[in-house]
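REQUEST ID: PR-0412
SUBMITTED BY: lab tech R.K.
PRIORITY: routine
TASK: structure prediction, single protein chain
INPUT:
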Amino acid sequence: MLLNQVPAIITGGGSGLGAATARTFAVAGARVAIFDRDLSAAKRIASETGGIGLEVDVSDPESVAQAFKKVKQNFGIPRALVNCAGIGTARRILPRDGTLPISDFIRTLNVNLTGSYITMSHAAQLMSEATPLNDDGERGVIINTSSVGYEDGQIGQCAYAASKGGIASMTLPAARELARIGVRVMAIAPGLFATAMTDTLPDAAREAIAANIPFPKRLGKAQEFADLARHIVENTMLNGTVIRLDGAVRLQAR
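STATUS: complete
OUTPUT:
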């Protein structure tokens, strides 16, 4: 599927991986809608890409429904959805202070996993109404963001690993179900990437993190995630699988 003139939705598009993906899709000719809880960030990226920026809480079904309605009104039926919205949680099951972070676990799953399911459901519903774009009968592509943490989960990452593992686990059944309407479903599992969080670390700490990556010995770049997302959209045979984008890193327990 070519991105030229295709309506695309990027959740978490106000920063990081999502912002890079929005810019890359726009350069390829897509009309992008940026979903983000930070409206100012969404509008900033939208102004750069000629798209629209919307304040959306992906864990809230009504918020998502209203946003999809606005996208359809402005651009027509979306043909690509890239779910980058998510939160990171680092809490032990039994913290030293004796508290039980059950509410953190629930919130992490609500945003990362349930949020991806909600947006995927709305995208599939609209895509099913669309005219196929090519001889294969393709109507759309959905890309969810997992993490290497779902396979290499570290101590304190139960909530995050569970949420990202759920995303990985639903990739194949979702792809098989939506195949009947010509919609592909993929997931990308990034490794250690340069983010707003790692930008604040001292150089020595960043170098220590990068030293654990076999090759290249550096943090991943948001543009590399965006380039893979674009390739997935354009390569019709990519369907129903999770791609690790990690420089061959395997995370240790801590």
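NOTES: The radius of gyration is 18 Å.
REVIEWED BY: pending
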